[in-house]
Amino acid sequence: MKPRDNPGDLLQGTLDLLILKALARGAMHGYGVAEWIHQTSDEILRVEEGALYPALHRLELRGLLDSEWGFSDNNRRAKYYSLTAAGRKQLSEETEFWRRMSGAVARILQTA
Amino acid sequence: MSSEVLNKFVRRLRTLFKRRELDRDLGDEVAFHLAMRERKNLDTGMNPEDARHAARRSFGNVTQATQKSRALWTFETFEGFFQDVRFGARMLRKNPGFTAVAILTLALGIGANSAIFSVINSVLLQRLPFADPDRLVRIYATQNTPANLPVSGEDYFDWQKLAQSFESMSIYGPPQSYNASGAGDPETISVDRTEANFFSLLGIQPQVGRAFGQGEDRKGNNQVAILSAGFAARHFGNAGEALGKVVRLDFQPYTVIGVMPGKFNYPEAVDAWIPLDMSLEVLGRRGNYSYRALARLKRGVTLAQARADMAAVASNLAREFPVTNANEGTRVIPFKEVLTGESRPQLLVLLGTVALVLLVACTNVANLLLARATGRQREMALRTALGASQSRLLRQLLTEGVLLSFAGGAVGLTGAWWLVKFAQSAKQLPLPRQNPIQLDPIVLLFTICACLLVGVLFGLAPALEASRMEQSEQLRSSAQSIAGTSGWRLMLRNALVVAEVATSLALLVGAGLLLRTFAHMRNADIGVRTQHILTAAVVLPEAKYQAIPDRREFYDRLLERVQHIPGVDAAALAEQIPLEGSHGNTANLPGVADSLHGGLSVNVNFVSPDYFRLFGLSFLSGRGFTPEEIDRAYEAGRKSDEYWSAGGQTLNHVVPEWSSFAIINRTMARQLWPNEDAVGKVFINNLTQPVTVVGVVADEKYGGIREPVNAEQYFPVTAELRNHWYPPNIVVRTAIEPQSVLSGIRRALQGLDSELSLFRVRTMEQVISDNMQDTTLQTVLLGTFAALGLVLAAVGLYGVMAYLVTQRTHEIGLRMALGAQQRDILRLVLGRGSKLAVLGVAVGLAGSLVLTRLLSQELFGVKATDPATFAAVSLLLIFVALLASFIPARRASRVDPLVALRYE
Fold first, then answer.
1. How far lies B133's CA from each of B151, B262, B294, B436, B761, in Å?
2. Nearest residue on chain A to B65, judged by CA atoms?
3. Which residues of B touch A51 (CB under 8 A)?
4. CB-based contacts of A55: which residues, under 8 Å, 6+ apart?
5. Is the CB of B29 less than 8 angstroms away from the CB of A30?
6. How many H-runs (helices) and E-runs (strands) does chain B carry?
7. CB B13 within 8 A of CB B75
8. With an 8 Å Cβ cutoff, is A38 touching chain B?
9. CA distance B842 to B506
10. DSSP secondary structure of B397-438
């Protein structure tokens, strides 16, 4: 289990996880990732763009994402991100951790 | 995990090269995102204008977002630092006046500090160029007095046998004058005779050739010499050329086997080293104290242990040889202490002075920076509003402060370099010369630390101030408070100016006292005539003038020739020149002779009959030496010389033929026979020798201008014709300029023996100057620093006043509009300035009264609390302060009210 750097990173870590998940289905640009998270969460989660791009770049620096310039469906130049092998591994680890965490929290909250 | 970190770092490094591309990419990414959002908004029915705005708004703060991303691929700290530096440099460039003053001030303060520190460093702190110098010690003999005495050869051998604490010992003589010839011009040089292991004990290798080998200090093997770098350069061109050559010292041939490196200079500035003859007969028996001993402690042995060891050895010898060693003890002193001992207090005074100057300089700059800082409050507030963090602001201000101080330090260091070069080349400076004085890495480090410290201090002051106030409060601040004309900021500035003036006063008082000391010493009455007197030493080499009669004949003929040189009023021979005497005996009244009591400590001189007339020493009673007395002294001297040459022991009984005659000075007469005429009386010299007084002369100053007059006895010069340590001086008094007879004297000397030369030719005035070297140096240095401090204080006062005027222009305009005259404004500003100055002077006076006590040892003829000096300096400072305030005051009074009122 990867240790957390500091508890305040929880939010950032969560965002990272969502991004990784978003890209598991295939390469996407930043706008697409934000939209996918928004839609898939039934419009509950809205990603701050100011947080999204730094997160994407950070993940790329860590070697979990690859990026490539391409053209969007309306022929605009856009940067597409995709998972690397390390990214996939990280995704499964983080997912497991998240499941454990949320399960534990739920259990505590269930007690009267 | 570490591989991830490594990868991350590598990737980061790579991004360093692609920065511009990454920036562009980021811009494109953001643009794309906004475009998509905008399109979506359009799809939901907004008009194009609203769509765009909505898109932007939802994105959030674009700048902040991109900042975070950019932070990933820039090394923000470094970049921020460079940015700070560039910005700081720009700010400094925009205010050239302020910058120039600040840099100059710091340059003076830091530069002076660095220069003095490098002197102190090389003299006090630096490691001696010897191997493992902390284990080196000097061993002295003592005779129940605090004096450190030379060592006898036989004692030395016993020490070597008995002492346990030392790895090795070496013996060497004090430097002596030898005649050097056979290579270029003949020259009188200083030569030291040492044991063969001298250099290896010290751990110094010659730069070419080798040191003495074992056995080279025995007769037959010891005709070898090691030269100093200077001597080799003077006579052979360079060190390499000198190897293997033969040089004649006192007409004996010596083969050069090595040349020492230029910076090796032990003992005092010798030109060559030759081996001793270590056989007991030549080295001298117990009781003949002529040498110096050096030793290296065994590893792990402490100084205390070594001292106890030597004490035991000494008492051992005292028991075995009571006749000679009954009262003899030993003293073990670390080598370093011996070398630096004399100059330490002076240098510490210098250090204190320079620290004060730096304080003044820093105070000045602090004031200037504070003044500027209050003007920048708005700027700081604005930057905070734009998103700069506190730490970033702090960093900016610190960087500016450090930039300023480093600029000042760089300029100062250049100045210091010049100063140090001067100090190194100026031969008159009385500094131990074991290590060359130079700006070395330690000094550089010291300077950099000083710069950093100063810079941080200066950066912090306004920075802390800026961070203290609330943002909005800063923007809304009243004009008065920003102008810094009220509140604690003003008080701080005033306090700084007062401190400056006070420090400057302290420095000036010190300089003033020293200046008066200097004047007093120059004009002091030393008891003898000083005008038109020339002195020079003449050394007769042992080998050529072995027999005493030969020496007497030479000196007699020389004196006669010199007396007949046109222009010479009087000529004499003297072992000691006034102010430079260093030969001592003890004198007792007969019947009171007691080895435990020591007796009266008396100075000794050996002179020819005309000495007294030459120097204007009048006879208070009695007469000079008669020719018979001179002959008898000669005979006694000859017999004594024979006795010692044959290896005689110290005597405890009297040898009648050796009774002699002496002329004594008034002080000695008064001390031995207070109410009687001393002529005809007898005293006991050195516990054994009865001496009859034939005359009493006026007092002269024997050892130095500062020293009080001591008892002194004069013997005929014929009694001591063989004396390597005090070669007789030939002294002439001329009717005309003394230098003009110098060539005549040289010719007279050459006429007698073409291989001889005069040594240390000086006029009496030069002798006085030499004696005053210390004081001269101190006066010059302290005077310079005091002047520096004065200039800095004046500049500081001016700066504060000028700033004040600028800030209060509005108020001044108001006053003038309300009817104030130019005069009134003048009085207003001058009044402010003079109040500060007077306060500063008052504080300074109080401080000086305490501080000058530290100087009292160096003063002569003036008290440490001399009121005249204090008063004069105070007036000077007040005058300068008024002048400094006057200029901005005048500017203030010239202000056009209309302009001023509009000024905000």
1. 22, 19, 12, 17, 37
2. A50
3. 65
4. A12, A15, A16, A19
5. yes
6. 32, 23
7. no
8. no
9. 11
10. HHHHHHHHHHHHHHHHHHHHHHHHHHHHH-TTS----SS---
Q: Which comes out higher in pLDDT, residue B659 or B803?
A: B803
With contact defined as beta carbons under 8 Å apart, do B221 and B254 qualify?
no
A50–B64: do the CB atoms touch at under 8 Å?
yes
- CA-nearest residue to B13 within chain A is A61
Contacts 24+ apart (CB under 8 A), B317-326: B317/B155, B317/B158, B317/B162, B321/B286, B323/B649, B323/B650, B323/B652, B324/B286, B324/B287, B324/B649, B324/B650, B325/B155, B325/B286, B326/B595
Summarised one tens digit per residue, pLDDT across range B28-50 is 888 888 888 888 888 888 788 88
Structure tokens given for B437 = 């004085």
Q: How far is B47 from chain A (nearest CA, A)?
A: 20
CA gap B722, B727 in Å, rounded: 8
**A37 within 8 A of A16, measured Cβ to Cβ:** no
Q: What is the pLDDT of residue B342?
A: 59
What is the DSSP annotation of B769-805?
Answer: HHHTHHHHHHHHHHHHHHHHHHHHHHHHHHHHHHHHH
Length of chain A (residues): 112
Q: In chain B, what residues touch A81 (CB-CB under 8 Å)?
A: none
How many angstroms separate the CA atoms of B184 and B247, rounded?
10
Q: In chain B, pLDDT over 70 holds for what percent of residues? A: 83
CB contact under 8 A, B36 and A77: no
Strand, coil or helix: what is B655? coil
Which of the four pLDDT bands, split at 50, 70 and 90, describes residue B1? low
Residues B603-655: tens digit of each pLDDT:
889 999 999 999 999 999 999 999 988 888 888 888 877 776 666 655 555 56
Q: How confident is the model at residue B346 (pLDDT cuts 50, 70, 90)?
A: low
> What is the reported pLDDT for B471?
45
> What CA–CA distances, in Å, run from B832 to B367, B823, B889?
16, 14, 10
Residue type for position A101: M
Dig out the tokens for B764 from the structure.
Answer: 């009496």
First vs last C-alpha separation in chain A:
30
Average pLDDT over residues B209-224: 86
Considering only CB atoms, A61 lies closest to which of B8, B64, B66, namely B8
**pLDDT tens digits along B557-571:** 999 999 999 889 999
If you search the block for the tokens 């023996």, which residue do you land on? B753
Best of B7, B18, B36, B42 to substitute, by most chain A Cβ atoms within 10 angstroms, is B36
**φ, ψ for residue A49 (rounded to 5)?**
-60, -35
In three-state form (DSSP H/G/I as H, E/B as E, the rest C), the secondary structure along B662-690 is EEEEHHHHHHHCCCCCCCCCEEEECCCEE
Sheet holding A77-83, edge to edge: A28-29, A77-83, A65-71
Alpha carbons B231 and B245: distance in angstroms, whole number: 13
Tell me how long chain B is: 904
Nearest CA in chain A to B25: A79
pLDDT tens for each residue of B490-510: 777 788 788 888 888 888 898
C-alpha span between B485 and B482 (Å, rounded)? 8
A79 neighbors A29 (Cβ within 8 angstroms): yes
pLDDT at B112 over 80: no
* Among candidate residues B847, B872, B882, B875, the one with its CA nearest the CA of residue B356: B847
Mutate to test the interface with A, among B5, B34, B68, B73 (most CBs of A within 10 A): B68
Of B655, B644, B647, nearest in space to B685 by CA: B655
**ipTM exceeding cut-off 0.85 for this assembly:** no
- Asked whether the beta carbons of residue A61 and residue B58 sit closer than 8 angstroms, the reply is no
Q: At what angle do helices B390-425 and B344-375 cross, to 10 degrees?
A: 150
Q: Which residue type does B314 have?
A: A
